[in-house]
Every structure is written in structure tokens, then in C-alpha cells.
Amino acid sequence: MRGPKVPSFFDTDMITEQQLTALVTAHLEGTPFFVVDVSIRSGNRICVYIDGDQGVNIDDCKAINRFIESSLDREAEDFELTVSTPGANSPLRFPRQYPKHTGRELEIITTGDTAINGILVRADAESIELEHPKKSKKEEQKPNTLLPYNQIKEAKIKLSFK
Question: Whole-model pTM?
Fold first, then answer.
């Protein structure tokens, strides 16, 4: 005869994506790292995406992976855990992600659904500033665009393979 089902952190009354986010966020407090996203998918697949003020390397991901592993009980329920950075084509989601991309070209969609491309020249707590490079020597230089974060619907780094 089987015993009662052992509750796991995947049950609805156990750990949630929000609780896991809070756990990892608290662990990373005071470090240059922060949580970008957490998801718990079917098959007990946990994905944690992190970023850092100066970037993230494989050793950083391994350390965070070990912390999460030590915080969860595999005896109660097996799971698959991935700790990674967002992909190169993932949108920037937090103001904290912008400064390290100064000098790179961004593709932005505003909350008014206007597309803006430009070189990130400055990012602070409230807004970003984009420079619009001239496409030809005859074209007049457009003024820089100052864009508050609350007006950015989506921002991605434009990848260049030159």
C-alpha cells in the first residue's frame, strides 16, 4: 500500500515562481547580480535567468545553481534546474540592465508603438539617452532622444555581425 503523497515545492500551496524569485533575489542582495525571470514549467523544469551589472559568467551561474539546489528538497520531488542569462536577443527588462550596454545600438518600441533605433549614450535611474548616427555625410545630425523607462515598451540590443 502506498503512503500519502509527499507535498513538494511544485504543489500550488508550496513554492511558486514568485517565492523562488524572492528567495534568489534575497540571496543576491548586495551583489552585482539580480534576477531577470523565473519560471517553473511542466516536468518540474525550473529556469532562473540572472543578469549582472558587469555581466555574468559561468561560475556565477554555477554558484547560484548550487544555492538553489541547497534550498530545495529533491527528496520530496525531483526537478531540473537551469540557471542562465537571458539570450542575446532577449529584451532589457530593468533599468539596471541598461548602463552596461552604453555604446551599443538599441532597438526600442515605445508605449506609443513608435520604433526608435539609436546608440545608448547614457542610462540613469529614470531614463536613457539615445544618439542617432547620421546615415550619410549630407544628412543633418538628429538631436539625441531622452526616453524615460516608463515610455519603453520593449528594448533590445541590436546585434551586429560586422
Answer: 0.80
Helices (H), the chain: 17-28, 58-71
Instruction: Work out the number of other CB atoms within 10 angstroms of the CB of residue 71.
Output: 13
Residue with cell 531577470: 36
Element holding 82 (H helix, E strand): strand 80-84
3-state SS assignment for residue 4:
coil
Angle, vertex CA 22, rays to CA 40 and CA 34, nearest 5:
90
> CA 36, CA 17: separation in Å to the nearest integer?
12
Helix, strand or coil for residue 46? strand
Rounded CA-CA distance 43/38 in Å is: 15
Residue whose C-alpha cell reads 541547497 in the numeric block: 70
Among 84, 18, 8, which Cα is nearest to 44's?
A: 8
CB-based burial of residue 115 (10 Å sphere; 0-12 exposed, 13-18 middle, 19+ buried)?
A: exposed
Q: 131-156 pLDDT, tens per residue?
A: 998 777 887 888 999 999 999 999 99
Residue 140, all three cell numbers = 543633418
